[in-house]
Amino acid sequence: MSNTILVGAQWGDEGKGKIIDFLTEDADIVVRSQGGNNAGHTVIVGDKKYILHLIPSGILRPKKVCVIGNGVVLDPIAVMKEIDGLRAEKVKVTKENLMISDCAHLVLPYHRGLDEQRELKKGKGKIGTTKRGIGPAYGDKIARVGLRMADLMQPELFTKKLGPRIRENNAILKAYGAAPLNLKAVLEAYLEAGKALAPFVRNTVVYLHDALKAKREILFEGAQGTFLDIDHGTYPYVTSSNTTAGGACTGSGVPPQRMDRVLGVMKAYTTRVGEGPFPTENAGLSNMLHGMGREFGSTTGRARRCGWFDAVAVRYAGMVNGMDEIAVTNLDGLDGLPSIKLCTHYKLGKKTLDVPPSDFLQLEKCLPVYEEWQGWERPTHEAKTFADLPKQAQAYLHRIAELSGAKLKIASVGPNRDQTIVV
Ligand code: IMP
Ligand code: MG
To answer: Considering the domain 4-100+201-262 in this protein, what is its CATH number?
Structure first.
């Protein structure tokens, strides 16, 4: 495998966790470069189900090194909890297989408090965040008032820096009518988590460049999806990081010309959690998938909104990410349908659009133009090769690849490792 950037081509929850786990077999190092514990990657190994939020899915394979890069925001207490959870499942987590950037920014309790208060204040216009404090943490980073892992590794310095941050944020929380934070309690909890995390913390940029020199192969695992990108997504209904391919470079310190390929992961239909425009949303499809016990969020448990495959969105994702190849997941979710719709264009008034408008108010007004494809109406979860798939499913996948402008590489027909078809 070459150095690969894996991105979500839709609104997150494309099944990236499973594809990352599959590709990790051929990689040496797996890097997470953006987002925080708002993400939820579900990986099934044998009869065990793991949900990872911050730690790269590579941790489940022995001998692979996982790196949490500088572009990630992390809550040290949540990371420790995740490490303890993995260890309780007999997964090895040591300083040899997990490294955390000393430049990664910290999520603090006031970030969560502000996230919650801002959502409450917005009322009906809320973003529908995961309430993990992600937006306010990145806000502080950009405003240059964030605290980083490097600060946490120096207790005296951290103590000195945290005081003014708590005081300023307590004043804001008070203005919202929310309870203030206790400096001493926050300090104690964070310093304790910091001590436990210390062995993992280092300059990960240098580590990755040494690995590049040694020709070790790196997989960059994206979290969330293209349309949740802070720059290219359906702003303001987005997350606060660059979820697109460029984020893998800035969030890890690995330069663009060292990247060999970009793989876009997408579902055979579309889903979105949280608020915001969603042109192909379809209540019938949502009900069917929820009825099958599918499409409930792995981080918040919320029911995901579901809709038909949106090739207008994916076409744009292909451009922004430079997608070379695609992996299409959850094909089996469509097994029961006699016919399947696929959106190729939007109508906005009299105009026909082949890429989404930048403004969400316009996107809300877009009407999808559909092609109708014949369903296959039989189970696909046992297919091992592309040829095992029903002819209609093969045609549908080829059409998705054609509209995406990238090569079809993987089709996934279930959550297990062996339900992965390499095309
Ligand atoms: P935040 O990232 O918690 O600020 O949430 C902002 C938006 O991104 C909300 O619509 C969330 O539901 C969505 N979001 C954040 N992380 C994920 C994810 O991992 N999968 C899907 N949606 C996500
Ligand atoms: Mg998820």
So the answer is: 3.40.440.10
